[in-house]
Design goal:
Order of helices and strands: EHEHEEH
Largest sheet: 4 strands, mixed
Shape: globular
Strand content: 15-25%
Number of strands: 4
Oligomer: single chain
Radius of gyration: 12 Å
Strand order of the largest sheet: 2-1-3-4
CATH architecture: 3-Layer(aba) Sandwich
CATH topology: Glutaredoxin
CATH superfamily: Glutaredoxin
């Protein structure tokens, strides 16, 4: 199974909520990581400072990553898993 991780800035992030809702609707399992949490400061620093992301959520699927709400890419994951 392809591992999906959603790096979120928390419940107030509309794009993060929409991404999780779309993943849920398509029955795609994912790990949710709140990068605003103090214990995830190193993860946030890596995503922002090292990789240059400036928009949440950041979605990681295997070796691919993107930021923002991208239903087209989420639908592509579902299709690849035979769920869409």
């Amino acid at each position: 199974m392809t591992r999906v991780t959603v790096y979120s800035t928390g419940p107030s992030c509309q794009r993060c909520r929409l991404t999780c809702q779309r993943l849920d609707a398509l029955r795609i399992r994912y790990d949710l990581v709140d990068i605003q949490a103090e214990h995830n400061a190193a993860v946030r620093a890596f995503l922002v400072d090292e990789l240059g992301y400036r928009e949440a959520p950041i979605v990681e699927v295997g070796f691919a990553r993107w930021s923002g709400f991208r239903p087209d890419l989420i639908d592509g994951i579902a299709a690849g898993l035979g769920l869409g």
